[in-house]
Amino acid sequence: MAEQGHGHGHHGHGGQMTPEQQMQMIQQEIRLAKNLGQIKYKIIVMSGKGGVGKSTVAANIAETLQAMGYKTGILDADIHGPNIPKMLGIDMLEEGFNQYQFEAFKAIIEDEFAKKDLTQEEQQQLIEDKKEEYKQSLFPVVTPSGLKVMSMAFLIDSLDRPIIWRGPQKTGAIKQLIADSNWGPLDFLVIDNPPGTGDEPLTVLQTIPDADLVLMVTTPNVVSQEDVLKCVKMVELMNIEKIGLIENMAYYTCPHCNEKLHIFGEGNGKKFAEEMEITYLGDLPIEESVSNAPNKEATISVLDPSDEVSKRFREIVEDIKKEFLE
Ligand SMILES: Nc1ncnc2c1ncn2[C@@H]1O[C@H](COP(=O)(O)OP(=O)(O)OP(=O)(O)O)[C@@H](O)[C@H]1O
Ligand SMILES: [Mg+2]
Q1: Is the C-alpha dihedral spanning 312, 148, 215, 296 positive or negative?
Q2: What one-character-per-residue DSSP string does 268-305 give?
Q3: Atom of ligand 1 at shortest distance to CA of 59?
């Protein structure tokens, strides 16, 4: 990936691109338009701060949509800490992914062969054509529930060794991940953005300028909300007006008396959303079932639909549909 991404970094430096680099950039734009053009709704999940539950929310929303019968994909755009696959119980690194890509390509060819009676020569030609067509494609991994997943985690050979990205390589890798993921037709694509207002989340917003909705995730404490404010302003600067706020870890339900304990204060998220003039989509409790989920084969929404958090996710998805998409 790093090697493939090399060269992107020179774009934009005073128009010094070689004709070959210009051609590559145009071809990438074409792939981007083609791959994203097959997706009905794109939802970007963001947060001002790290560790507030962005990936948890993205994974649960995606699984909930898929369970509701929508064809859904999730793109893990966090290239430093890609943990969406782990949250969905997918254990796949570079070698397995390459094998998977080969199988996916083979399936396409076999499909084509089954459609018509071809001579050996025509078969060979078809293989060559398809190789060209899918040369740059990254076929997403599919979970048992049918959710399609793409992540940088599939393009590296070890999860515990840090990848050292230099600035331009980083944006190149993110763009490549978005442009080359071949989802096929989807109702929803959920994108888990890296935290904050830096280069990486900005690259995602610039690469997907027609996002239908940005979901901001925050925790109730004020420090975190000031960071969200910056994030909201960045999104508004990109002319995306549909922004929803989810307050995560808002309360803890006492297992003994069932009282809702608002550890970080109550009503902050709602008040904050009103001040920011963005849509408040509700809160989520702190729950052991959620923090445990990353070690399981799916999110809590799939594992236990009767769980309080799973119900909240279904309500949030219904609200998203009503508020933003109908
Ligand atoms: N509502 C919740 N109840 C209990 N644990 C939670 C909840 N939401 C998130 N967590 C846990 O908090 C940790 C951080 O969540 P998560 O990884 O989703 O955050 P993030 O915003 O994506 O972080 P990063 O910025 O590092 O990508 C995880 O261990 C997750 O399981
Ligand atoms: Mg995350």
Answers
A1: positive
A2: HHHHHHHHHT-EEEEE----HHHHHGGGSSS-HHHH-T
A3: 18
Confirm if 217 and 45 have CB atoms less than 8 A apart: yes
Residue nearest to atom 6 of ligand 1 (CA): 291
CB of 53 closer than 6 angstroms to any ligand 1 atom: yes
DSSP 258: -
From 47, 55, 56, give the residue whose CB has the most ligand 1 atoms within 8 Å, as the site to mutate: 56
Distance CA 326, CA 317 (A): 12
| Residues whose beta carbons lie less than 5 angstroms from ion ligand 2 | 54-55
Q: Which strand (E) or helix (H) includes residue 315? A: helix 308-320
Indicate whether residue 289 lines ligand 1 (CB < 6 A).
no
CA-wise closest residue to 76 among 94, 55, 56, 57 = 55
Cα distance between residue 308 and residue 293, in whole Å: 14
Q: Is the CB of 296 under 6 A from ligand 1?
A: no
CB atoms closer than 10 angstroms to residue 142: 14
For 295-317, the pLDDT digits (tens) are 788 999 999 999 999 999 999 99
| Class of the domain covering 42-90+143-325 | alpha beta
- Summarised one tens digit per residue, pLDDT across range 133-144 is 999 999 999 999
Q: Which of 55, 219, 224 to mutate to test the pocket of ligand 1 (most atoms within 8 A of CB)?
A: 55
d(CA 245, CA 45): 10
pTM, rounded to two decimals: 0.92
Summarised one tens digit per residue, pLDDT across range 28-66 is 999 999 999 999 999 999 999 899 999 999 999 999 999
Domain boundaries, the chain: 42-90+143-325, 97-140
Query: What would the 3-class secondary structure string for 108-141 be?
Result: HHHHHHHHCCCCHHHHHHHHHHHHHHCCCCECCE
